[in-house]
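User: Could you check the structure of this?
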Amino acid sequence: MPSSPIDVLVRHRERITPSGPPAEPSQLPALAELLDQLPDPRTRRGRRYRLGPLLVACLLAVLAGATSLAAVIRYIAGCDPALLTRIGLPATATRLAATTLGRLLSRLDGDALDAVAGRYLTLVATASDSPASPQQARRKLAGLAVDGKTLRGSRTTDAGAVHLLSATLHDHQLVVAQRQAGATSNEITAFAPLLEGLDLTGTVITADALHTQHEHARHIVAAGGHYIFIVKANQPTLHRHLKDLPWRDVPLNDRTTRTAHGRREIRRLKICTVRPGLPFPHAAQAIQVKRRRTNRATGTTTIATIYAITDLNPHQATPAQIASLIRGHWSVEALHHIRDATYREDHSTIRTGTAPRAMATFRNLAIGLTRLIGWDNIAAAIDHYRAHPNDSLQLICLTN
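Assistant: Sure, the predicted structure tokens are below.
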């Protein structure tokens, strides 16, 4: 227990002045309206509540820290009837059973739900962005990280754990697309469907070595985007070519120092235009990153060298931009850590049908919306919305 509860009380009492959604939320469709367009798996005879408001109630519960179906039901049961009315549910929704909600979530169309969630986050992010000058718009490159995560608690005796591949904007950790893959190896086949329908103009796709595939590079460039791929031993020929480049003769392009999490890290980045014949589609520049990390408690130092490849030429991105995009890729790892540490995703025992994926989508929405409105600490945001449920309506464009 903390010696003084003052900090906790202040965090509960504080009010956030939202930076987004914009001042006129009527310009955006309400989230409940978008969710109402999903295919409803329930029979008409058994529908007591509208689908969209019911899913919004689940999202509000997750915003307040619910990590299980039982916690979601407890949240709805304790809601003020006036709040339920504002999101489109009758007061009788407080008597909703966990089994009823579980059956609904387990039969939802996961792809359709993720498409609505990604569309909504994109709309809110676009509306809340400040307008940029034409010159800034030309020079700005948005980073989009592609990475997978396994929901470890969803494993059953008959089936493996649910594995999700997502596309996450570096800024604000917004998951704009998500697909389910059978296992980590199937991420490769899910890559192109994941990016289907996304506008990749001015977007740089960052991915780990698993997705350093020729077809992935061709698909991204054909869609108008760019890529930065990490290269490791799974591409032995390409990796050898990159290691053999004359890096000692290449000047240092960027150097950053960062101290956090009990360690000091120095990154040195070198970039060179690749020689003809590099065996990778559209490759324009090779990248070497030397990372020197010192544990401040033990004094232990580790040095790692990372190689990457990109289709960006020197006129399209500066070394500082490339360094920022490479660092920004790890924002998706931070997102996964929040889902595990704050929402206890890997400890969740929800296993039936698409329910594990639906709960992961609600977590993505909750984190993305709280980031957009200005929260840096997701745990603090959960405390706030648990104490002030009406404030969470700001995030779904129901109030100013």
